Every structure is written in C-alpha cells, then in structure tokens.
Amino acid sequence: MKRLYFSCFFFLTTTLLSQEPEFQRKIYQAQEVNPHAPTIDGKIDYDSWDCTPLESGFIQIDPVEGDSPSENTSFRICYDDKNLYVLFCAHDSEPDKITARLTRRDDVEDSDRVGIILDSYYDRRTAFEFSANAAGVKYDAVLSNDSYDSADESWDPVWEVATNVNESGWVTEMRIPFNQLRFANKKEHIWGMQVYRTIYRKQEINIWQPMSKNAPGFVSYFGNLEGIRNIHSPKRIELLPYAVSKLNTYEIEQGNPFSTGRNGQATGGLDGKIGLAGDLTLDFTINPDFGQVEADPSEVNLTVFETFFPERRPFFIEGKNIFQFPLAIGDGDFARETLFYSRRIGRHPQHEPEENDDVYIKRPEYTSILGAAKISGKTAGGWSIGVLNAMTAEEIAQIDSNGFRREEVVEPLTNYFVGRLQKDYDAGNTYIGGLVTATNRKVDQSYLKYINHSAYSGGIDFTHQWKNKTYFVQGKASFSHVRGHEEAILEVQTSSTRYFQRPDADYVSLDSSRTSLGGHGGSIDIGRQGNGRWRYILGGIWRSPGYELNDIGYLMRADLAMQYIWVGYRIANPVGIFQQISINANQYNAWNFGGEGIFNGSNVNGGGIFKNYWGFWLGLDREIDGLSIFELRGGPALRIEGGWNNWYSINTDSRKKIHFELNGFNYWSDDKISRYRNLSMSIIYKPSNGLLVSLSPWFEINKKNLQYVDTVDKNGEDRYIMAHIDQNTFGLVFRLNYSITPNLSIQYYGQPFVSAGQYTQYKRITNPRAVNYKDRFQIFDENEIYYSDDNGEYLFDENQDGNIDYTIESPDFNFKQYRSNLVIRWEYRPGSQIYLVWSQESTGEDDYGDFQFRRDLKNLYNTSPNNIFLIKLNYWFSM
Questions:
Q1: Which of 110-119, 298-307, 520-529, 692-701 is the least confident region?
Q2: Distance (Å, whole) CA 527 – CA 825
Q3: Contact present, 700 and 665 (Cβ < 8 Å)
Q4: Residue 621 is assigned to a structural domain of this protein
Q5: What is the DSSP string of 639-684?
Q6: What does the pLDDT average to over 650-658?
Q7: Could you read off the pLDDT of 497-537 as tens digits, one per residue?
Q8: pLDDT at 444 over 80
Q9: How far is CA 447 from CA 124, 370, 409, 444, 810, in A?
C-alpha cells in the first residue's frame, strides 16, 4: 500500500510541472441601437439591426475540435438603456433538414439551437444562458462553479425570442431585459461571453470563443463582451400571485368519519422577487403550492438508509447552486450527502399517533410551509451571498374513537435557516467560503420529546486552481450539534446513521442522559481536472461517530474514514471507429473510528460514442470482505462477504425518430447464494416535431441470503433473526409530451410498480465476525420453527421443549402502486401560466410473497384510486 501511495504522489507531482496551455480571449464590441430598437418577430429589420457589423468566426468544438463549421453562423449584439438585443443568422445549405421540435421550455436538446451565455458578474465562474431552438422554444439556465454541468434549468427569466426558418437557413431575434441579469453599477461594463450554435442532424456544435473539450472549466474560458456603457442595474420587483382550486376524490371507507369520498379547497399565495443593492435578489413565497410537481417514484426500501429524492419544487430549485455544500465530490452515494437538503422543509410529519381498533386518524401528508424567503447574489467584490429562512406550520392530526374527537400534534412549528458566504480570489482561481444552518422547533408536547428541538451545522470550504485551472486542491471541514430532551438525543445515538448501542463498539458509548450531541466531518482532494487526456484525484473523507445532519441536511452514515484514488483517460476527438472514448479506474478503502476496516475495493469502467452515434458504457467492480454495522440494526457488526459487480449501458442514435437505451447491473456475492440483477430499457419515439412518447420498463431480481427480519428477546438475550429473501420487482414509466406551441403543452407521466418478497430458510446470528461464512449463523430446522395460518406469525421453539420462545410476524409482502400525473400548461402571457392537473395514485398490499405478474398487476388496477383535480392560475407582473 505504501508503494501505491508513493507511486500516485510521484505521478501527481511530476505532471504538475507540465506546460501551461495557451489561451487567448476574443472581444466583441456591442453598440447602442440606432435609430430604433429591433422588433422581436423573427423578421429582420436591417435598419434596426444596423447598430454593429455581423460577427462570425465560429469554430467547431464537436465532433472535431478545431475544424471549420459545416455551415456559416453570424450574430449581432446591440443594446439600449433597458435591454440587450441579439440577432443570429444561422445559414444552412439544406434548410429542409433543419430540426425544429416543439417542446416544453428548456427541453431543446433534440433540435437545432443557438444561444448566448453571459458572465455578467464577470467572475469567470457564474453565467446566464439564453438560447432557443429553431421552433422558438426557449432554454435558459444559470451556470455556477465554472461548469456547464451545473446548469440550473429551473431559472425562468422573462425575455422574448422569435425565430423564422427561411430558404437560406433560420434566424433568431432575442430581447433580454437587463432586469433579468445580475451586474454591478459601472460606467462601462465588461462581461464574459460565449455564443454557440448546434446543428442537430450532424451532432455539430460551433462556438465563437475557441475552447477545448478538455478544458478544466467553462465560464473561465469565455471571451469578452465590451462596449456596454451608461446602463444601470435596474430596480427589480416581480410579483407572481396565484390561486388554486383543488378537488380530491377517493373510496369511502365504511365507519371512518374522515373518509367522505371527496373534499375540496381553494387557496392562494404569492411568490416574488425584489432586487436589492449589491447585485442581490430577495426571493419570497407565502403559502406556496407545488401541486403541479411530479410525484416521487415508487419504491420498496429494505435497507436502513433513507432514500434520497431530488428537489422538484421551483422555489427551492431556483438559485440552489449558491446553497450547495456537498460533503464529497463525485457522483456516488457519498456525493449526495450535504449540509442542506431542502426536502427537509415541508417534510412528512414525523409523529405517528397510535392506531387501535375503532380508531380513525386524519393525518396531514406534508408539513405546510407558512412562508419562505431567500437572499442570493454576487457582489462586485466577488462575494457570493445566500441567506434562506423558512417556517413550517404546526401540523395536527384529528383522531376519532367511537365518535369522540381529539387532536394530536404530529409536527411541531419549525424554523429553518441557511446562510452561505463565499469569496473569489485571483480571477476565480481560488475561493473560500462557509455555510451555516439552524433548525429550531417548538416542542411542547411530552410525546414529541423524541424530536430534536434544535440542530446546528456549519462548514468551511476552499478550492485553489492553477495552470489555467488544470490542477486543483480543495478541502471541506464541517461540524454538527443537536440538542433536545434525553429521549431525542437517545434517538439520535441509536439511529441507523450510527448505532451507538452496538455491543461490540468499544470506541463509542451510549449515554441515555445526554441532551446534546456533536460531531465533525470533512474531505480533502488534489488532482488534475483538464487540459489534457489524463485526469486524476487523490482524496479522502471522514465522518465522526457523533456527526448528525438529518434535521436539515442529508447524511447516510457517520463513523467513517475513507481514502480513494481515481484516474481517468479521455480521448475527446474522433479516433478509429469512435467519436470519443474514455476509461476510468479507482480504488477505495474505508475504516470506522475504531480502526476496523469496513469495506474496500476497486473498479474499472469506460465507454464511448461510435461514429454512428451509438454509445456504450460498462464497468467491473470487486469488493473485498468487510464489516457492516447496519445489517443487524443496532446489533454487533456482521462480517460481509465480498463480491463482484458489473454494469453496462447501450444506446442507439438519438437523432432517429425511435431510439433505445438498454441498461443492466449484476452482483454476485462470494457466498455463492446472494445475487442481484437489474435490467432496464427505454424506448423513445418522436413521431412528429411536437410529440414524444417514451416507455421505460425495468425488472429486478434480489436474492439475499442474510436479510434482516427482526430482533427478539429470549430470556434477556437478543436474537438477531435473518432469512433468505427472494424479491422480484417490476416497474414501468410511461411519458407523453405533446407541445402545441412553445407556450402550450400537455404532459402525462404514469408509473405502475409491483414488488414481491418471500422469506425462507430462517436463521439466527451466532458468531457475526466468524471468518468462515457458515459459522456466522445457525439455520432453524423444521422442528424449531412453525408457521401459524391463524395470525400470520412464525413461532420459534429453539430447544424443542414444546414451549414457544418467541414469535415474529411474517415479513412476506406484495406491494403494488400506480402513480400518474397529467399536466396541461399554458403560458398565456410572458411569465404567467395556467395549469390543469390530474394526479392519481393507487396503492395496495398483500402478503402472498411470491411474484406473479398478471395477478399482481390485476390486483393493482382493481385497487380504488385517489384522484386530485387541480386548477392553478398565476399572473406575473413587474414594477
């Protein structure tokens, strides 16, 4: 291992001395409009656009970097005191082959497209993109952290665009109000700028400012837009009041006084933006509604880890880049861990009242957000600022017992706060920042004492880049501190994130008298990120046992220290039969804070795109035996067998009317019994320029020999009961997108989901750390375990004396669910929309255990649905 570390260190330090690539910026001089501002209608009034000469000089970046474009492109930029005007002339020798798809806003990848990206902060890290496809569909996004991959497409500024396809190609006219941009008050402005065009049928991208595919940044390689004088950052007040009418219908439950079969309500609220001094913006929302947001996918989670769901609500998505504080780099599970996870705000109520016979409960599904506000932006001095505060309501469940009504609080009144500050140095090559969070709850009820009444976290991060950002070093350090009654802190100590109660964990202690708990975590990485075919990272992360973020952040596991090495090689230009190809390899090793190795392994993966635009990706991973503190749910660590993983993905040419994607994942355990398979595919059909239909089925097979079932007590001694599970899961996602105009669209999403799990060969853990796999457990024979049909329980008689030692409920399951959304969206005027929504959900459960596709699907469609019909109207105006 020491030799491996020395070799990596030598490789890193020698390559750091390589030659810095040369880079020259282009300059475009904008001019004031003369004599009148252009009319945005797609018909060029050359007198209006005669403010500056046409600029061309584009160069190809894809598929062949540095080649001349196959078609000519030119543009003009002029301005007045309120707007920036952009004209594109996209010449095409075969105008009948121009791809102009009608889609919803921001869904323009499958079309010819032109765009301008402006770094109006001029920080070489942040930019605002405005683009349109040949059908006039808008695309707009905010870019952050000098990366195009960071594009936040939820940003929907109010601006104008018009396109026109003619005999020589197509033209685009844009009017971008300055009040939709962010910039400092100066007499003369210099902004970063990139202009581009895509020719979809040729998969060709041409850019104005030359840059490399292997560039380690994006915004930092822009050219300059100069010549804009005597404009001022305008005062911005934007208001978006809304009204919602909702009807909910469902099956009547006999005897349940809360189940009347239908209920309706009408509500309203307000979203708004106010421009503040110093390039900052105040966003606020009062009584927000997210009824048009698509539902989360169905799942059956048999692990101790909480499922991470991405944010879909517009208020929290827009501007989210400034509040991001991921705890690690990469794209795996650890990269999802973060100090701020906005899905905590408006979460499902945490308390569940006890249910008994003849007791009926009406419990809110989500916590209401009374109001939220955030201030975000970037000053001329390079300070990125973000402040968010949200308050959620005290939620109350109504409980009926034989006509006697009472109320019980299921979620306390809560305030959430997030503050972010970051400073740029050396033209964005170095930045240092910090983030703090605070969660405070009003916990008055004795039965809610298990919920933390306050939680605080914070962290600092830094990044330094050199040699044109080719190399980087970055680090993060963070802390957490939670407070509450003894019951609450005991809940934190025994949660699945850490399991302090483990009997073999002598380096942590369970203290039932504690009223607070603190911890720390961090990461450090050094590597190369571009300007060459080689890329690599050497890094590590740690999480102390007491580290806890889940009141406002997302943390899967504490008590961890891990090192990793990642090396990648990428050929970005055509070679042989490939348009591009890459290969990666990595190694990782992890320990707990007791110094025990818990997992380690390595993998190699790679893929590419062929010249016919088919693509593939595949990989192979080897994991070595390790220790898991999670398998026995607070019991001792269990030795886990190693195994092999492999995965693959194949896709056809997306330019065709119909194309496919096929994905697979396989796992084989060294125990020769456990394995996991997943096969999924997508069929995408585009029968016309306005219609897209996709069908994405998948099937999973999960066979695990040691699946946790229960922990039971036998004469004061814990028994950890496990079994072999045979689980089969089928799911399908159907989507239909039909756009009538760029501002009127119909979307349908439907997902049937069926999962069945059958448990056999029950066993109890006897020696969890035994080297020999079969010595870790004892299988119950037919004389020690019995199944009772009367109450659906397994009865255990370990010593076969005729007396039952303990029982467990049968864990076999058949879970069925159907979720769907139909959304009609009409932007009847710029910034103002009408939504018509129909959402439906059917959920059912049985205990057959075995998977029978026709039976389970039939039972699903025989389940009575819950329907929501919604009409939402908002109206945007600016002052």
A1: 298-307
A2: 46
A3: no
A4: no
A5: EE--EEEEEEEEE--TTSSEEEEEEEEEEEETTSS-EEEEEEEEEE
A6: 95
A7: 999 999 999 999 999 999 999 999 999 999 999 999 999 99
A8: yes
A9: 53, 24, 9, 9, 30
CATH number of 192's domain = 2.60.40.1190
345 or 276, higher pLDDT: 345
Is residue 686 situated within a structural domain?
A: yes
Neighbours of 828 (CB within 10 A): 11
How open is the CA angle 197-198-201, to the nearest 5 degrees? 150
Q: Which of 67, 109, 70, 110 is nearest to 91 (CA)?
A: 70
Q: With pLDDT > 90 as the criterion, what percentage of the chain qualifies?
A: 75
What digits encode the pLDDT tens for the residues 78-94?
999 899 999 999 999 99
At 480, list the tokens: 């957490």
* Residue 335 forms part of a structural domain: no
In 288-382 the beta strands, taken as DSSP E runs, fall at: 359-362, 369-378
State the Cα torsion 288-292-293-295 to the nearest 10°.
Answer: 120
- Give me the pLDDT at residue 306, please: 85
Structure tokens at 200: 């979809």
Instruction: Report the chain's mean pLDDT, rounded to a whole number.
Output: 91
What mean pLDDT do residues 603-621 have?
A: 96
Q: Which residues have a Cβ under 8 Å from the Cβ of 794 and sit 6 or more positions away?
A: 762, 785, 786, 787, 788, 807, 808, 809, 810
Give dist(CA 780, CA 796) in Å, integer: 9
pTM, two decimals, is 0.90
Nearest to 209 by CA among 197, 191, 217, 221: 221
| Total domains, the chain | 2
Give me the phi and psi of 858, to 5 degrees please.
Answer: -65, -45
Burial of 396 (0-12, 13-18, 19+ CB in 10 A): middle
Residue 381 lies in a domain: no
Of 229, 260, 286, the one marking the end of a domain is 229
pLDDT at position 3, please?
A: 41
pLDDT of residue 22: 53
* Residue 187, Cβ density class (10 Å: 0-12 exposed, 13-18 middle, ≥19 buried): exposed
Q: Contact, 849 vs 757, CB < 8 A?
A: yes
CB 197 within 8 A of CB 167: no
Domain that holds residue 47: 2-229
